[in-house]
Q: What sequence folds into this?
């Protein structure tokens, strides 16, 4: 199996190749034509090989690069192509919310799978998006990776900032053997949220070391509000952890001002990407390869 890195996921692709037993790893040549169009070229011998292509699709340029690389790998005669999309852009528009809108995630899925034999992604906004693929599609989760780093800290209580994250926090609670709770979240606009504690018997908060888990940190509004709320109840320390760290604008600094530690996985390159989902992706690839 050969691993090829898209420009958005070079480090993670290299880690995946190591997890696959140091399988051959390559970075394609890319450049821009004078008119701005993208040029890609994959090197090496790919004929009759199984190829893993890793590329996060955070920007439109990265999506185009992925599609061109898929085509190039097919053109080079690869036997099977496994496409790994660590952060699946457009996943949040997974259905039309108003008349006239597309299900953007589905549109992307259709184009990605044209040249792929299977697709692997990580913590989709909605697992339902897997149904948009007609080829085998799998979702790894950042939970085991984040658990590896939380194990090294004192954590008494796990917090999901919203009800949508209950499965994630429950899973983490199972791994770490800790209690959890989910906050009530009301989104005011794309930059602001209101968070409250749920109306139920709550575990003690004062003096506790808490960890907030989210799938995505984007503007940081959710994590900042969650940390502020928990500090009002006099928690001792707050760790924030997410699978996908977008950290838009000054999110990183705002979170660091209210949290003691901040971790994200390496689905997106960022200063907090201290834990890797490479073992979890490699496990799915090995299983998929063996099953065919
Ligand atoms: C929402 O459904 C997600 O789980 C995240 O809570 C959200 O995307 C975080 O966004 P922000 O960092 O902008 O509050």
A:
């Amino acid at each position: 199996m050969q691993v090829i890195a898209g420009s958005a996921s070079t480090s993670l692709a290299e880690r995946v190749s190591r997890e696959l037993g140091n399988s051959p790893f390559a970075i394609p040549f890319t450049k821009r034509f004078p008119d701005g169009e993208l040029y890609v070229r994959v090197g090496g011998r790919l004929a009759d090989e199984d190829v893993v292509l890793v590329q996060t699709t955070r920007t439109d340029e990265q999506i185009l690069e992925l599609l061109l690389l898929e085509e190039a790998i097919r053109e080079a005669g690869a036997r099977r192509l496994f496409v790994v999309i660590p952060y699946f852009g457009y996943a949040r528009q997974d259905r039309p919310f108003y008349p006239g809108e597309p299900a953007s995630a589905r549109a992307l899925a259709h184009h990605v799978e044209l040249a792929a034999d299977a697709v692997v992604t990580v913590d989709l906004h909605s697992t339902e998006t897997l149904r948009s693929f007609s080829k085998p599609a799998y979702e790894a989760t950042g939970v085991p990776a984040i658990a590896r780093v939380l194990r090294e800290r004192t954590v008494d209580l796990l917090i999901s900032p919203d009800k949508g994250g209950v499965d994630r926090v429950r899973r983490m609670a199972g791994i770490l053997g800790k209690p959890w709770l989910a906050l009530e979240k009301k989104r005011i606009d794309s930059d602001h949220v209101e968070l409250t504690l749920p109306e139920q018997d709550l575990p003690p908060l004062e003096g506790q070391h808490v960890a907030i888990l989210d799938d995505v940190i984007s503007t940081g509004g959710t994590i900042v509000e969650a940390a502020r709320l928990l500090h009002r109840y006099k928690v001792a320390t707050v760790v924030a952890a997410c699978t996908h760290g977008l950290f838009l604008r000054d999110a990183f600094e705002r979170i660091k001002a209210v949290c003691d530690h901040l971790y994200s996985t390496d689905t997106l390159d960022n200063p907090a990407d201290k834990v890797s989902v490479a073992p979890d992706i490699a496990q799915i690839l090995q299983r998929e390869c063996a099953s065919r």
Observations:
- The chain has two domains: 2-141+277-289, 143-275.
